[in-house]
Amino acid sequence: MDSRIPRIRAKLAKMPYQVQRSHSVCGEGHRFRLAPRISSARADAFETEHRILLPAAYRAFLVELGGSGAGPFYGLLPLDECRLFTMNRKPADGSPRGFTHVDHPDALQGDLFLHIIEMGCSDLCLIGVTGPLAGRVVTGNADGFWPPNVSSAQDFLSWYERWLNHMQDGKHNAALGLSSPAIEASAPWGHRATARSSPRPSAAATDERTRR
């Protein structure tokens, strides 16, 4: 087992209780929980079906930690919902590259990327499957509304642990979908602002909760 896996598991378990942690700009509906791990046989079947090899660190996460759930942005997609994309060629007008979904790895020429995390709308968080970016996490937009960004993390486990570390330290990191406590405190969409706008419970209701 990769030594990072038990470390990531321990950090993830503590994250809900970190008072000064950052928050995800997409919310934390996953509640820092992971779905059950997938079997090696299931990973093998996915690879055979799509005629690819899953990056080793990403596969290790799915098999040894969890199959979906807690992660940056809206969280990790179940493997059955992950789709393959290719990065489009650079447009002649110099605008950013987009991504094209492929039904089969042989359908189009170009390096393959697997959509692994939900970001919303046409934004994509992918992991390189073939080519020079294999194993690296890449974010971009399918329609080329903004340019692709390649994470400096060398593999999925390093990228995932960086998310946990930056969240724990209260950092603001748009590339990981994190907003710092200071921004959360002042932003109209922040957790504290939401709490301030919610009606306060009456004294009777407070007493009732105390008695329980």
Can you put this structure into words, describing what you see?
This protein is an alpha+beta fold and 212 residues long. Helix content is 31%, strand content 15%. The strands form 2 sheets. Strands 3-2-4-5-6-7 form a 6-stranded antiparallel β-sheet, with no helix packed on it. β5 and β6 form a beta hairpin. The longest helix has 13 residues, at 156-168. The radius of gyration is 20 Å and the shape is globular. Residues 193-198 and 200-212 have low confidence and may be disordered.
What strand order characterises the main sheet? 3-2-4-5-6-7
- Compute the separation of the termini in Å: 45 Å
What global shape is seen?
A: globular
> How large, in whole angstroms, is the Cα Rg?
20 Å
Order of helices and strands: HEHHEEEEEEHEHHH
Mean pLDDT: 87
- SSE-based structural type: alpha+beta
Number of helix segments?
A: 7
Please report the total strand number as a whole number: 8
The oligomeric state is single chain
**Poorly predicted regions:** 193-198, 200-212
The largest pleated sheet is described as: 6 strands, antiparallel
Strand content: 15-25%
Helix content: 25-40%
Question: What is the topology?
Answer:
Elements: H1 4-14, E1 23-24, H2 40-50, H3 56-64, E2 84-87, E3 99-102, E4 112-118, E5 123-128, E6 137-141, E7 149-150, H4 156-168, E8 178-179, H5 181-186, H6 191-197, H7 203-211
Antiparallel strand pairs: 1-8, 2-3, 2-4, 4-5, 5-6, 6-7
